[in-house]
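Fold this sequence, please.
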Amino acid sequence: MIAALVLLAQVATAPDAPVDVVEHLGERVADASFMDSESNRVQLRDLTARGKPVVLTLIYFDCPMLCSLVQKGVIKAINESGLRLGEDYYGLTVSFSPRDHIPEARLRQGGYLQTLRNAGKTYPAHWPFLTGGDTAIRALADSIGFRYRYDKESEQYEHPAVSMILGPDGRISRYLYGVEFSPRELRLAVVEASQGKVGTTLDRVILRCFKYDPASRKYHFYVMGALRLGSGAFAVALAALLGALWWREIHRQTRSRTPSKGRPA
């Protein structure tokens, strides 16, 4: 059922308005002016380049189902990943419907984020929900390759099911597709986007053993990375063993050259 909804949301009904994602990896998110749920006018660039990775979702607030599935899927994966809002990452949700306004943003922000673990009381600042005009929305959507269209017949938007991970400087690091996300993959994407500044030493070790595959859009076990890591560990162990043997040999030779008491030198 969910797969069918995702497929339906990505089917364009007009040849001149394809619903799709055109990846812009490594590019900065456009700067544009939006309103947050606290009625503050904010600049997108200020919220996407705050020194930590950003989990970005584009939804519209009266979407009958798909947007809710995407947002809830991201939050579920974050909860299971152990990442902490404001410490490991920031969140950002933007409505791509110019018909959405501040009251709707405030309502959806409270509804979605009440289920987010490790959020603290400062979650409105660390995960803002934004609304804006058509020009600002189009600028953002174009900069991340998010292609959508409004269907007048159904009075709904057709759009892809995708979330983005931004680096600490606002550059697009990874796209996560679908409505269900692996906690491990989301965590790896955030660690990768942070260039190792977020997460534990174990996360960085795991990241060396897993490589992102653009074809499947998932992280897969990377044999060469594991071999390099394994060879590195083996080299350290071998060096330690050789060092211990060398020390024992030196110690044995020293003892053999030292005269014992009662024996002539």
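Residues 1-15, 197-212, 222-236 have pLDDT under 50 and may be disordered. The chain has two domains: 2-195, 223-265.
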